[in-house]
Fold this sequence. Notes:
Layout: E1 3-4, H1 7-11, H2 16-19, E2 30-34, H3 50-55, H4 57-62, E3 67-70, E4 74-75, E5 87-91, H5 98-110, E6 114-119, H6 129-135, E7 147-148, E8 151-152, E9 160-161, E10 175-178, E11 183-186, H7 201-217, E12 221-224, H8 267-287, E13 293-296, H9 302-309, E14 319-320, H10 334-352, E15 356-358, H11 367-371, H12 376-385, E16 389-393, H13 449-453, H14 459-470, E17 484-488, E18 493-498, E19 505-510, E20 516-517, H15 518-521, H16 524-527, E21 532-538, E22 549-550, E23 556-557, E24 562-568
Parallel strand pairs: 2-3, 2-16, 3-6, 6-12, 12-13, 13-14, 15-16
Antiparallel strand pairs: 1-17, 4-5, 7-11, 8-9, 10-11, 17-18, 18-19, 19-24, 20-23, 21-22, 21-24
Helix pairs in contact: 9-10, 12-14
Amino acid sequence: xxxxxxxxxxxxxxxxxxxxxxxxxxxxxxxxxxxxxxxxxxxxxxxxxxxxxxxxxxxxxxxxxxxxxxxxxxxxxxxxxxxxxxxxxxxxxxxxxxxxxxxxxxxxxxxxxxxxxxxxxxxxxxxxxxxxxxxxxxxxxxxxxxxxxxxxxxxxxxxxxxxxxxxxxxxxxxxxxxxxxxxxxxxxxxxxxxxxxxxxxxxxxxxxxxxxxxxxxxxxxxxxxxxxxxxxxxxxxxxxxxxxxxxxxxxxxxxxxxxxxxxxxxxxxxxxxxxxxxxxxxxxxxxxxxxxxxxxxxxxxxxxxxxxxxxxxxxxxxxxxxxxxxxxxxxxxxxxxxxxxxxxxxxxxxxxxxxxxxxxxxxxxxxxxxxxxxxxxxxxxxxxxxxxxxxxxxxxxxxxxxxxxxxxxxxxxxxxxxxxxxxxxxxxxxxxxxxxxxxxxxxxxxxxxxxxxxxxxxxxxxxxxxxxxxxxxxxxxxxxxxxxxxxxxxxxxxxxxxxxxxxxxxxxxxxxxxxxxxxxxxxxxxxxxxxxxxxxxxxxxxxxxxxxxxxxxxxxxxxxxxxxxxxxxx
Length: 570
């Protein structure tokens, strides 16, 4: 059955005029994730940097982006590609300097582009000054990280065993023995990434100071990394409980050996998000300007995401990421997508009047590699047609694929982090050097910005067209009664209707490999619709051109075709 979002039902006593009031900038924003190592190299060393990002910022405005999120650029020994931070208030020399960052912010503000930084509060690098002070038990830092004496080894007198059976996300024990301090420290990720102790108020203060440092420089918000890992269960006597075995593997060194019920999604994490939200809201009150926001990375259930967004008394993250659409693959159909959309809208939109949609990031396989070349444009159009904010990973707008390589790519997470493909020249225009930190994808001669700019139905131009529609009045009308509806017309065809009083658009996406007679799929009322519709956007699979006109009962769709139709008044 077709899903219809009714503002009067959702909002209860809210008047229609209050429901359709102007949205804050982030509510329907187009966010774009830049992986700084791979976007643009300005100095020819094969590694992307801040000056390179600044040089290309206007490209983001060209394609309809309103805010960019930068993966970590902070000082780091790079054990985990920058997610192991040694100095939270300085730029790593690989990327440039604080002055370079200030120049980037200045350029972004001049063109109306918001800048979001990664915030990695769960842990630091083991080279961080704070950790070294904690190892040495310096005053004020003794309890800055999670330390424990461990258990006596009954088989080896004088030896110590880890305090619990907890397994790191990167496999092996979460506990690492420090010879100098003669204690174990906790690391939910690499052993080079010791976890902060958020039960120490001084850690809270230090993190707020980090946020204020970057807010004072002019950033517009933060994407919070690894939200679910901030706290661990500890008993009143100071011991840590073993986690139950999962039963899925006999390998005691793999993260899946145990169920992470004591090391993820602890209730204190929610309160921490509320604390940071209050801090950002107070910062705006004191300093003025636009809303500074929190994006929260959490691969968790909707029950948890619900809490991360707020509980009626406290507000949480503005956008706790919705990862449902990352499940889309080459076998997904219209009913799968209907289910993903319904899951979010029925819970998060109904309760919080907030939606966001993520299809990829730096840890996932790229869209084109996941769904195939035929469906990549379909996914981009559907993403932009849904209400709320969208988060696009760099390169998805031109259909980049995972890179094929050995050696440095042994970590499969980085296969989707290859250099951005600007043109068909040396290193795809990413660098003047032929030697880049990761190899350029094999198809860069055909898949790049320069070539796609000149092809009307290219992935880039389809993306630009969909983003342009996303920011029209009709697409912003989703809070109005009947301003947004969606549903699977059959297993293959997914439909989204946007707008009402300010114009109507109908998005049709054919996930299937056969021709669909759309007129036969419509309800009687739709079949009897005498209105004329104009093709406002078509993908490369379409047999139609922008500007052509048609009646609903006359529509046929070829395999994998996606179109946007604009209703024309008779």
